[in-house]
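Exercise 7. Given the encoded structure of a 498-residue chain, write a plausible sequence.
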């Protein structure tokens, strides 16, 4: 008998306005946060999801698939494909958006997650400083293809996965970040596990079991600030291992209960229970950071990136672009740029730009790019641009410090004060409390479509990309998502096996 009990619980929707029991709530008869999160995921049904969250799930599915398609050809994804060939694994029947070959579901999830994160175009959740889409969507679509899931089942799994990933990340952030962990890899694995469990229709006990297994697979360090491409693989690892945790549960592997809050569990290990300051697992902390007027669900309160770089830099970009636009200023007029922001963002002021990976994390380089190009696009991180003498000279005049007000507001706000001093002595200041693309300042549906086509059309062809996009906006009406996912992967190979 497997552990993936098919009988769904009754309506177990989580009360989003009431904090979950803290880590000490493992007393007999008291459900801890792991059990409560599992109960929420097991009881979630499409009919119970509010319309704002349903639309958000469609938007984030489209946005992530676009990032996956565009990122499928990047070097980290290619390295992964080559490594799989060398290991003799990977061949299967699951398509990967943007690729012409088919893989086993676990390898497809790894490749999809790596592709989605590879170009710094994937979505995110501010209170948790995490990129849920790059983990949850690849795991979900890989399994949904195999199981011939309906569109409603896929969207429900995405909502459940975002909820788990974002809540767990928000409860441990920023403490986990200061301990050196990358939340997308560490908290993301739970999102993939819960999404997989949702597609398998597991009951609450089985979902908690999947979370218990996933806890042992959480991984990801901020060592990437020193260079290299390993950051791009973090969501791939989390997507694969989270999906594996769900599959292992279905296959009967037992796991510990209460894996989030137990003394040896996730929160104490990653958020620092050894310091004595971590007060437990209030994993619905996320609701305090929700800003969508019609939904408290995590997926409706995530951002979608308008710029191809680290989200911590986006408020600075918004500020300098506003100054360019509103003051009629040019980059040649800039004497210096002073940026005050929260501490985590300020660390990016010391990041160099010798590689594309680090350039997309570098405050000085990105701000100089925005001033010179009036945008921040993928093309602006080429080797030629990273060596451009005028851009480099301007980057040398950008300083980033911690602003006490911005630090006090973080993570409830992701803000920046920017002052540009011109060569003729003017001081032009802008304050951005929250960058473009968030729940309070959303990218429109038309903007989502335009971004998808910009990313997908060069890979799939304009007509094919348009066709896939139209079907994705109506995916909730689909009885089997497999043909849509297959269409997003027919690029230069027609779905050949590796």
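Solution.
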């Amino acid at each position: 008998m497997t552990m993936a009990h098919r009988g769904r619980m009754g309506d177990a929707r989580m009360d989003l306005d009431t904090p979950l029991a803290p880590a000490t709530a493992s007393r007999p008869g008291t459900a801890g946060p792991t059990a409560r999160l599992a109960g929420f995921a097991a009881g979630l049904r499409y009919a119970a999801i509010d319309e704002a969250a349903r639309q958000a799930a469609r938007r984030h599915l489209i946005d992530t698939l676009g990032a996956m398609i565009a990122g499928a050809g990047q070097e980290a994804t290619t390295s992964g494909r080559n490594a799989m060939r060398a290991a003799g694994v990977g061949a299967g029947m699951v398509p990967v958006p943007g690729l012409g070959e088919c893989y086993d579901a676990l390898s497809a999830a790894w490749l999809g997650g790596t592709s989605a994160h590879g170009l710094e175009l994937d979505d995110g959740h501010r209170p948790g400083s995490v990129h849920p889409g790059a983990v949850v969507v690849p795991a979900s679509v890989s399994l949904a293809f195999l199981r011939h899931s309906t569109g409603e089942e896929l969207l429900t799994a995405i909502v459940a996965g975002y909820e788990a990933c974002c809540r767990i990340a928000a409860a441990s952030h920023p403490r986990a970040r200061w301990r050196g962990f990358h939340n997308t890899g560490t908290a993301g694995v739970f999102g993939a596990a819960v999404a997989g469990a949702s597609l398998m229709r597991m009951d609450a006990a089985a979902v908690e079991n999947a979370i218990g297994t996933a806890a042992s697979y959480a991984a990801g360090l901020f060592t990437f600030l020193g260079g290299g491409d390993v950051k791009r693989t973090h969501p791939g690892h989390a997507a694969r291992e989270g999906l594996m945790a769900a599959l292992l549960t279905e296959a009967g592997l037992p796991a510990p209960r209460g894996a989030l809050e137990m003394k040896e569990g996730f929160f104490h290990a990653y958020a620092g229970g050894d310091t004595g300051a971590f007060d437990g697992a209030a994993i619905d902390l996320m609701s305090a950071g929700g800003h969508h007027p019609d939904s408290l669900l995590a997926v409706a309160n995530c951002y979608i990136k308008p710029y191809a770089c680290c989200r911590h830099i986006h408020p600075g970009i918004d500020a300098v672009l506003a100054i360019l636009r509103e003051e009629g200023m040019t980059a040649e007029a800039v004497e210096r740029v002073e940026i005050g922001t929260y501490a985590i963002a300020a660390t990016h002021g010391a990041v160099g730009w010798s590689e594309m990976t680090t350039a997309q994390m570098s405050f000085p380089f990105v701000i100089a790019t925005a001033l010179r190009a009036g945008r921040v696009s993928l093309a602006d991180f080429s080797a030629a641009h990273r060596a451009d003498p005028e851009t480099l000279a301007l980057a040398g005049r950008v300083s980033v410090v911690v602003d006490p007000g911005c630090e006090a507001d973080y993570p409830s706000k992701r803000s920046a004060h920017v002052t540009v001093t011109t060569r003729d002595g003017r001081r032009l200041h802008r304050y951005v409390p929250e960058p473009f693309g968030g729940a309070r300042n959303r990218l429109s549906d038309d903007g989502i479509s335009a971004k998808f086509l910009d990313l997908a059309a060069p890979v799939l062809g304009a007509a094919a990309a348009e066709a896939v996009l139209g079907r994705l906006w109506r995916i909730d009406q689909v009885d089997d998502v497999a043909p849509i996912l297959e269409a997003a992967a027919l690029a230069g190979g027609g779905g050949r096996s590796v």
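Remark. The CA atoms of residues 63 and 336 lie 35 Å apart. Students should compare their own answers with the one above.
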